[in-house]
Design goal:
alpha/beta; nine-stranded mixed β-sheet; 15 helices; 20% strand
């Protein structure tokens, strides 16, 4: 490994011929290799997926051989006119010979075509799944929309990637990361049904042995895998400076876009619905036993929680563990921590719980969050300023592919809070803005701390890993609105250039 050496510590950034050198950035995301495999696939994130006046459906990839699954999607019905959920009839005519399961960009619901539902054996007689929703029409037939745990009815029949596909996808993903100045990723199990962690780890080790792994990966398996991991004797933070294990991921609820984030009060636009506890949290004592067992084994726990009730419940769980087993450096994490009850904000610092948040969601969801939460409750959303002021540790990430991988746009989001629709030029909930320095710290030191790595990365100083990024502009000294126009010039991992914007395209 290569360590960084300078005459004196540089804890923020170093000027480089008008540009600026920063510690390389860390991001938290879904499964790196699986996501990258579908980069060229059906991506509907920016498409107006709707029928036209003649009733024609939108185009989907035509190059797939008959019978091959079409996956990914990344659609967002909040961008469509009207903003209604699609049904399988919308895509059936153009996907007669290929099963389709395309997920909403938040990963909390997906659209299946008729063939996919047939292959999965799903019909009007399929019972509901705890922690999930099968959206049905007035006659009780599935519309093709499956939410949260119900998505496993379809995903369980999708063939897994081969070892060769996983390696190829990882290479594509690390190239995408390097292009955005990212040299470390915290890869999270995508669902309670995600059993692919071991195969991903084998692929990453294979690439490392070949000398082709140019990114540092912290792999977080499912909480349900804790006994397997504990049985090896591995504890939190175990790594070889490229691949880290010892972290576990669980889920407390769904997402705001799918109206499955678990709230104390009903949704403003759906008065009969307060969201869902996850399939894991449907059995709270079993989930607690798993968390406590994993913690006693020295493993780190990260739990997805978006709604205020979900966050409150997980904070209670973490507090109960500490009360029963005593204090230690656990670094419990809550992933997202999006909507918080006011009295829960100071509990993050009090309980030493890391708020692992993704600032891009604030400028994306801010376009429509008031519909879900109402004008008063939305002010307790994405409360970065309040968390920092209460003493909490913020660790920023992208949540790719739910949001762009680019940390620069994440810094822009945290500092300006200007929503993507340009309707909030002064910032959406502007009192929650933070400074550029605070945002950079959350993407570097904060994220390194969140994976027990603050002693070897996160800042530029002698003895730390030589991971750094050169930006086209010094974001500390420009109009914050211009941060979004800043580019990555150079990315260095372990002392080697892994991306050079000036190099000829290959």
């Amino acid at each position: 490994m290569t360590f960084f050496a300078l005459p004196a510590p540089l804890r923020a950034s170093s000027t480089l011929r008008g540009a600026a050198c920063f510690p390389a950035l860390t991001t938290r995301m879904f499964t790196l290799s699986t996501v990258a495999w579908v980069l060229p696939e059906c991506n509907c994130a920016r498409r107006p997926l709707r029928t036209n006046s003649a009733g024609a459906s939108p185009p989907l990839p035509a190059r797939n051989p008959r019978g091959v699954w079409i996956v990914d999607g990344e659609w967002d019905h909040e961008r469509w006119t009207p903003a209604v959920l699609p049904t399988h009839q919308l895509i059936d005519d153009v996907t007669r010979h290929n099963p389709v399961f395309v997920e909403r960009l938040d990963g909390h619901m997906g659209l299946a075509n008729a063939l996919a539902m047939k292959n999965a054996g799903v019909d009007r007689n399929t019972p509901e799944i705890p922690g999930g929703v099968i959206v049905r029409d007035d006659a009780g037939n599935p519309t093709g929309i499956f939410k949260d745990a119900a998505m496993t009815l379809i995903t369980r029949v999708i063939p897994p990637l081969s070892a060769e596909q996983t390696e190829a996808a990882a290479i594509a993903a690390q190239q995408e990361a390097a292009r955005h100045g990212v040299t470390s990723v915290q890869e999270m199990a995508g669902s309670t049904d995600d059993t692919g962690g071991p195969s991903r780890l084998r692929a990453y080790q294979s690439l490392a042995r070949q000398g082709r792994l140019n990114i540092r990966i912290s792999e977080n398996l499912r909480l349900l895998d804790w006994k397997f991991l504990a049985g090896t004797g591995i504890q939190a933070g175990f790594h070889d400076n490229l691949i880290q294990v010892g972290g576990l991921k669980a889920f407390a609820d769904g997402g705001l876009g799918a109206s499955t984030a678990w709230l104390f009060a009903p949704y403003h636009d759906s008065p009969a619905n307060s969201g869902l506890a996850s399939d894991e949290l449907q059995k709270p004592e079993q989930m607690y036993a798993d968390i406590q067992g994993a913690d006693q084994a020295g493993l780190q726990i990260a739990i997805h929680a978006i709604g205020d009730r979900a966050n409150h419940t997980i904070l209670d769980v973490y507090q109960r563990v500490e009360q029963q087993d005593g204090p230690r450096d656990r670094r419990f994490r809550i992933e997202h921590a999006q909507h918080l009850a006011a009295n829960d904000i100071p509990r993050f610092a009090q309980l030493h719980v890391i708020a692992s948040v993704q600032p891009y969601h604030a400028i994306d969801d801010g376009r429509w969050a008031q519909k879900r939460l109402g004008a008063e409750r939305m002010h307790d959303s994405y409360v970065f300023r309040s968390l920092l002021d209460s003493g909490a540790t913020l660790a920023f990430g992208s949540d790719w592919p739910v949001a762009p991988m680019d940390p620069i746009i994440g810094i822009y989001a945290a500092v300006t809070r200007r929503t993507l629709d340009d309707r909030n030029p002064g910032g959406w909930i502007p009192e929650q803005k933070i400074s550029v320095a605070e945002a950079v710290h959350a993407y570097t030191v904060g994220s390194a701390y969140a994976q027990f790595d603050e002693k070897i990365k996160g800042s530029l100083e002698p003895g730390k890993l030589a991971d750094m990024v050169v930006l086209s502009r010094d974001i500390f000294h420009i109009d914050p609105v211009e941060i979004q126009n800043t580019a990555v010039d150079l990315t260095i991992c372990d002392g080697r250039v892994v991306y050079d914007a000036s190099a000829p395209a290959r």
